[in-house]
Amino acid sequence: MTGKEPPNYQRVVDDLRWRILSGELAPGDKLPTEKELQQRWGFSTTIIKHALTLLRGEGLIEGRRGSGNYVRDRTQLVRRAHSRDLRKRIGSTSLFARDSEAVGKRPSWESDSKKIPAAPRTAERLGIQPEDEVMYTKYRYLADGIPIQLAYSYEPLTITGGTPVEYPEQGPIVGVIARMDFIGVAIDRFVEEITTRPAMPEEADALELDRRGGMWVIAVERTYFAGQTAVETADIVFPGDRYRLVYEVPVDPWSPPDETEVS
Amino acid sequence: MTGKEPPNYQRVVDDLRWRILSGELAPGDKLPTEKELQQRWGFSTTIIKHALTLLRGEGLIEGRRGSGNYVRDRTQLVRRAHSRDLRKRIGSTSLFARDSEAVGKRPSWESDSKKIPAAPRTAERLGIQPEDEVMYTKYRYLADGIPIQLAYSYEPLTITGGTPVEYPEQGPIVGVIARMDFIGVAIDRFVEEITTRPAMPEEADALELDRRGGMWVIAVERTYFAGQTAVETADIVFPGDRYRLVYEVPVDPWSPPDETEVS
DNA sequence: TCGAATTTGTGCGTATGTATC
DNA sequence: GGATACATACGCACAAATTCG
After folding, report:
1. From the CA of A101, how many Å to the C1' of D19?
2. Do A139 and A55 fall into the same domain?
3. Would you say B200 and B180 are in contact if contact means Cβ atoms under 8 Å apart?
4. In chain B, which residue's Cα lies nearest the Cα of A55?
5. How many helices (H) and strands (E) does chain A have?
6. Are residues B142 and B205 both part of a single domain?
7. Are residues A58 and A90 in the same domain?
8. What pTM was computed for the model?
9. Whose C-alpha in A43, A222, B87, B164 is 20 to 30 A from the C-alpha of B44?
10. Chain A residue with minimal CA distance to B193?
11. pLDDT tens-digit profile, chain B (263 residues)
């Protein structure tokens, strides 16, 4: 007894997926038209359309009405979050810019700052009281003009308020670490919390993702600390399959036995 | 001029998504039947079924044939990758076990080791020659009996071959760092490279995910280093929306200006 | 235990809208 | 403008699993 055979639409999905992943169908290539697929497999429009819907959901193809279905470009940007050299960039380019250029993309970004009262969840992350004022900055990053990253940053005004670096994008210095250094706040670590989920409608719009397929994003919650004090927290959103996040973490030389392990 | 209004199936998706995320429909709750949704909205079976397919793809609901559609449990496990105290757990529990217990889940796992020649990509990650022998270990982790993590580990036999820790799961010591310590190899850092993608069919089976919805996974490539030498590399796969990965990275005190920043 | 009703899963055919070529 | 191709939408039929009397 072999297991039950898969439904027909699944067979179409598996066949096309394999042809795409194997490279037989390269990014930019046009798939056979729906009519051709119907004839080749002998299935109804329903089956073929359903299969193509699923492939869109997997991010492997995109449909262009009036034209055809095409294999999507799945080139990935790499984002590196190291401890090494993290402070070396005062007055220099951002990580986003460097990583974009590393893959031959032209980086650019938009930003907008304003003062708002902290939402409960934000206050919790920053260790402040709800309604305490924070500097809220909204970023959208683009590579070759294509939106590729969103970020929403929150900084307690108890730290930066009234200083030259109060507005992240208006002062003489770029980057959280450098700006905090400038006002005598020494950042010594950051924590990033990562998960993946379907894009919310607004995110799909901002990242110009296909709203139909339910594309997934990587969501990062980052918090910078100076000692026990949180000095900035941000929500960062990436198109899931267009990014690789790299972390390099040192392992301490030795200390008395207890418990912990990366499994 | 307001923008064009969304298609009908999208309106159904947006409505149900909102009701689920707001908590009006809680995990385990049964959605209205397809027939009820048809009558409530006045749409055809096609629209309602398509909308429910998309919600399945977003991981928000699961369909049970003969029964109904139900709101999925989206409780997340948290996996912490610190530098601090990483070596303190000699002879103790794994991170997976600790994190499982932290959310009240009973941890267990299966593993299987054998010696194989390194594939080109594996060899590259380990800095060895293709076809050099490596110890290959396949893990499946479960929380309360539910598969929740897969891992495929590779260790060069030039390092562990012939030692008491050659077979990861048979020696007296558990955990890569402790085992390497035991044979005098001092791990001083690890690198993790993260991305997200649809589950491959085999992964969906091993993790018991719904094959129909195209569920997404988080894929991590981890490599442990002792100095410049890679001593282990592993591919780790998590059900995407069931996990949060946490990284704490120290920031060096100071060094001469150059370039780098976490954007 | 059995059968009938219910509910989702798979599948067929068709029609119309809209963008592209 | 006409032909082509995908997007949205309607209605129907049957299979398969569950539920319940």
Report:
1. 60
2. no
3. no
4. B214
5. 8, 10
6. yes
7. no
8. 0.88
9. A43
10. A246
11. 445 789 999 999 999 999 999 999 999 999 999 999 999 999 999 999 999 999 998 999 999 999 999 999 998 888 888 766 666 554 445 667 777 777 778 888 899 999 999 999 999 999 999 999 999 999 999 988 889 999 999 999 999 988 989 998 887 787 888 889 999 999 999 999 999 999 988 898 899 888 777 789 999 999 999 999 999 999 999 999 889 999 998 887 765 444 445 55
